[in-house]
Amino acid sequence: MEKQKLPNSTLILVFGILSIVTCCCYGIIGLILGIVALVMANKSLKLYASDPELYEGLKNVKAGRTMAIIGIILSAIYIIYVIYMYSTVGVEGLQEMQEKILEQYGGQ
Fold first, then answer.
1. At what angle do helices 28-50 and 9-21 cross, to 10 degrees?
2. Read out DSSP for the chain?
């Protein structure tokens, strides 16, 4: 019997990569993509464990799952950083910091 490709193995890999790439979009997009990829990967791993001879593409699922975990961690760190900055410095403080940076680089 011919082996089938694990369902959503390529999509899991793409979502894992995108969760890392988009973690700096205030952390929200990376977190969502990472969680979706992780849930889909866990379903695919359970399906593979039930009948390993029937499926192929486990490497994509494992790589996507690993990248999803990394993306979730990076997104969570960025969300915590954003919350910390807004709670300590505030919006006005962030705007002042941005203006000072623009003055430094704009004057050169």
1. 150
2. -PPEEPTTHHHHHHHHHHHHHTTTSTTHHHHHHHHHHHHHHHHHHHHHHH-GGGEE-HHHHHHHHHHHHHHHHHHHHHHHHHHHHHHHTHHHHHHHHHHHHHHHHH--
Q: What is the pLDDT of residues 65-101, one digit of tens each?
A: 999 999 999 999 999 998 998 898 888 888 888 888 8
Q: How many Å from the N-terminal Cα to the C-terminal Cα in the chain?
A: 68
The model's pTM: 0.83
Cα gap 51→35, rounded to integer Å: 25
Residue reference for tokens 């699922």: 61
